[in-house]
Amino acid sequence: MMISFQTDLCPELPPVFGSKDYRELKALLCRIDELILQGRLENVFIQSFGYRERKTEHQRKRLLQAFRCTLIRMLFQLSYRRLSRELGCNHLYQKFCGLLRLDRIDVPCAKTLERYEKMASSETLRAIVTQLNHAAGLGGDESDVQPLNLAEPVELGVEYVDATVLKARVHHPVDWVFLRDAVRTLTLAIVQARKHGICSRMPKAPQEYLCAMNKLCIEMTHARRTADASKKRKKTLRRMKKLVRVVENLARGHLLKLRQQGVNDQMSIAMLFLLEQKFTVILDQLDGVIHQAHERIIGGRRVNNEDKILSLYDPDIHVIVRGKADAEVEFGNTLFLAEQADGLIVDWHLYKEQAPTDSRMIPEHMRRMREENGIALKGMTGDRGFDSAENIRLLGDEIENNLCPRNLERLEERLQHKEFRQHQTRRAQIEARIAIVMHGFLGNPAYKWGYKNKERLCAWGILTHNLWVLARLPQQATQAQAA
Question: What CATH number should be reported for the domain whose range is 127-169+316-471?
Fold first, then answer.
């Protein structure tokens, strides 16, 4: 059974003349709405929740609203607050999300929109993308009807692979600036705890410690422009370390009082857990941050990449050496992407640990294509980084191997074949596809903390991207005339 929005008391939008951009936007949203309904994506989304979460009509409508509001946010890269404002005044967005009614319009707030995005898991969104891709690939014979009313079904088996970096929000340098971050987070946690009646001895107001740290950061910044820069930087760092230890002791005192007092009338269990986490996530890393700053500035010694703390709030990011002109070194997580000729993303994977070399990504990718995505590979094209003897063996004779060879003699031999040259020419377009996905749908750097949130962000972004790509493909003649 197809699940759709209740259209009672939902007015039709008045015609708008004179704005081509408005007509194009309306046509895009209407086509995406058709793809969602024709592909039965809402059914998959709702069925992924337990029965108690979807048993009533009101619950199902809320899930559908969450699904569509998140798609709008990802499609236009809006913040939660801006999307909440847009949903209050933009009739196109209201109609797409099922909010437009005659009697009243209930708009979700920014916090609700954030909860909407976190409802679905990355596994659920991958299943939705898989169903959408399979629906786009069905048809082809004269007797078959394309489920999505596409003029031609897309070819899913011939793919182009590449890897990029989902950048994290980190700053340079990554040593003494962490001391400022630690003081800032701890003082804000202390202020929040004291508002809820958790009071421990404090000689000064929390803001004064943060102000003192900011002054030391200014001194550290200006010290490098002086003649005895190294000596001044070491002296300033020692003062910063003392201040950090003072704030650490104050924070531990408030954390102890917080645990002793527990839940009361002013503080719920959720708030107690949140406050405790704000304290512990910084206090547990404080010794490592101080040691790292000491080694780099006072000791003058390098810190190995595997031992570095790159972010106090995002422990799963890595130093990734890219070796490119504009990105010699990047901080974040490696993202593997595989697209087909029309631009649909057929497979992706965000690596939590340090990613393997490109050539070692192929076996796991082939397993996902076979077991999770249900797509039979017919051909694979990639750059020289994906070529290896093991991958040649895995592709065998059944899958057309268009990976660019590392060996120059073999490359010259392969360039004599017209099909290989055509696939390598088409492979260059995946760089543009990566730019579209990263900047147009995910945001680069990503405004998310933690691997789980980034993995979910990638799934939402790729689902929205594929809907956007399919919405721009030619439709069947009968469907186009009816529209």
Answer: 3.30.420.10
Per-residue CA distances from 409 to 215, 300, 406 (Å): 61, 47, 9
Measure the CA–CA gap between 90 and 177, rounded to whole angstroms. Answer: 42
By residue count, the chain amounts to 483
Residues above pLDDT 70, as percent of the chain = 95
**Residue boundaries of the structural domains of the chain:** 20-120, 127-169+316-471, 177-307
- Taking only the tens place, the pLDDT of each residue in 317-347 is 888 887 776 677 888 999 999 999 999 999 9
Quick check: 391 and 403 in contact, CB under 8 A?
yes
List the one residue out of 410, 435, 404, 470 whose CA is nearest residue 153. Answer: 470
Torsion of CA 135, 136, 138, 144, to 10 degrees: 100
Cα–Cα distance between 155 and 160 in angstroms, integer? Answer: 12
At residue 319, the 3 state secondary structure works out as strand
**Residue-wise pLDDT tens digits, 265-311:** 777 888 889 899 999 999 999 999 999 999 999 988 888 878 888 88
Query: By three-state DSSP, how is residue 382 classified?
Result: strand
User: Tens digit of pLDDT for each residue in 432-469?
Assistant: 999 999 999 998 888 888 899 999 999 999 999 999 99
For residue 357, give the DSSP letter.
Answer: -
- Contact present, 336 and 348 (Cβ < 8 Å): yes
**Tokens read off for 441:** 């749908």
